[in-house]
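Here is the promised in-class demo. Please do not try to memorize the tokens; focus on the logic of going from shape to residues.
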């Protein structure tokens, strides 16, 4: 009876039978540096994390892009993404990596994070300007790195030319300030990118919406919007679990989450504040990196992580699977964290290529970021401006700021060639303005006396 109930209920949420991959979805095939399907292959980074010097390899021909990591990570976390994006945009950018790992568990609004980031943005911008660039830099942030970019924009906004975020919790996370400190600590110990319990990052991560302030225990204001001239692209990971039994597909369970942050929160930049306060004229884009992971892959991830003997392992693998599915569905429908939903979110964070800890090395998400950066580069490219000049008034006299130089040639000026009517000057916007070469080839404009 339990198995039948689970299948019937889940069919109402996710269609039974093989689900077609959404356009642009990550393909669960191939091999990554960590052996995870769908991810790019990058060399392992072994150097000590450090912020890239603001003057390093600056050139007017390559726009600086500052990569800002997330919770419990460091400046090396986004180097793989930076390498791939640099290559995919045709080497038009120069990556810079901002490292704040010693303060990574503070809230994004803390001066140790966003204050230092603002100073760094301005330093990179100034170095770029000295090399002949326009001073505008792009930002790519993961998780809290995206929120840090918003807070930093309060003082560094004029230097920012565009922002791209991966799985940034604009509207918080169900794990923020939720009383699940022990679970979060367990995730942290198993390499899952989540803030440790008790600190500002975990407390301020509580869910909020419709312009509501951050949690009462959080002593920070909501992050500000970017200047209206700055485009922002929000990329969200969204995981679907494909439940199989003995090789037979039973049903799909769409979580609408990357395991830590919901898709709606990762797309919630505008909803940080009430609709009346939304910026007017700003270009806000959303993209979803969707991926599907089968239950066998989840079981393997749980085993590798050492969760098999734990409560989470019992929910996510083995005989507890059907109960976990029902319990997780209850949580999804009610909007509350249930034991089954907690177990699943933790497991898919480890197992899925578009999860919170893997999205920035998932090829699908990197392709979306590439498109966003190319659009930002094009918007910042100087445009050719056309200016109409009117140096002479209707009576033929020079207007203020212009001088008429008499032609001193003894032959005088002729605007006719071989007796033909004179040609209009190529820059003329009205009649009676002529092209008088060769007798007045040096003149900017000729007109009848």
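The designed amino acids, position by position:
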């Amino acid at each position: 009876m339990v198995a039948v109930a689970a299948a019937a209920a889940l069919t109402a949420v996710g269609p039974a039978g093989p689900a077609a991959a959404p356009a642009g979805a990550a393909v669960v095939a191939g091999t990554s540096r960590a052996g995870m399907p769908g991810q790019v292959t990058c060399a392992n980074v072994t150097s000590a994390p450090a912020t890239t010097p603001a003057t390093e390899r600056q050139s007017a021909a390559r726009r600086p892009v500052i990569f800002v990591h997330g919770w419990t990570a460091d400046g090396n976390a986004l180097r793989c993404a930076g390498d791939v994006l640099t290559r995919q945009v045709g080497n038009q950018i120069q990556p810079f990596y901002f490292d704040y790992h010693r303060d990574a568990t503070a809230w994004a609004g803390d001066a140790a994070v966003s204050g230092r980031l603002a100073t760094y943005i301005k330093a990179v911008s100034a170095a770029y300007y000295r090399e002949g660039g326009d001073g505008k830099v792009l930002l790519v942030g993961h998780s809290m790195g995206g929120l840090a970019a918003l807070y930093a924009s309060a003082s560094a906004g004029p230097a920012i030319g565009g922002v791209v975020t991966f799985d940034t919790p604009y509207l918080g996370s169900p794990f923020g300030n939720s009383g699940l400190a022990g679970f979060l600590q367990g995730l942290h110990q198993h390499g899952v990118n989540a803030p440790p319990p008790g600190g500002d990052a975990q407390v301020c991560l509580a869910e909020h919406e419709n312009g509501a302030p951050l949690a009462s225990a959080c002593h920070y204001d909501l992050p500000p919007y970017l200047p209206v001239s700055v485009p922002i692209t929000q990329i969200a990971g969204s995981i679907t679990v494909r439940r199989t039994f003995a090789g037979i597909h039973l049903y799909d369970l769409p979580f609408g989450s990357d395991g830590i942050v919901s898709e709606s929160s990762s797309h919630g930049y505008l909803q940080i504040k009430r609709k009346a306060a939304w910026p007017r004229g700003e270009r806000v884009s959303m993209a979803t990196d969707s991926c599907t992971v089968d239950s066998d892959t989840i079981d393997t991830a749980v085993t590798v992580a050492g969760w098999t003997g734990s409560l989470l392992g019992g929910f996510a693998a083995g005989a507890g699977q059907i109960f976990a599915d029902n319990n997780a569905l209850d949580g999804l429908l009610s909007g509350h964290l249930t034991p089954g939903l907690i177990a699943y979110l933790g497991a898919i964070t480890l197992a899925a290529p578009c999860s919170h800890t893997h999205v920035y090395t998932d090829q699908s998400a990197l392709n979306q970021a590439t498109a966003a950066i190319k659009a930002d580069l094009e918007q910042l490219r100087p445009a050719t401006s056309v200016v109409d000049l009117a140096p002479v008034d209707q009576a033929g006299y020079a207007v203020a700021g212009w001088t008429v130089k008499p032609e001193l040639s003894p032959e005088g000026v002729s605007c006719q060639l071989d007796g033909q009517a004179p040609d209009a000057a190529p820059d003329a916007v009205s009649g009676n303005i002529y092209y008088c070469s060769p007798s007045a080839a040096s003149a900017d404009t000729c007109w009848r006396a």
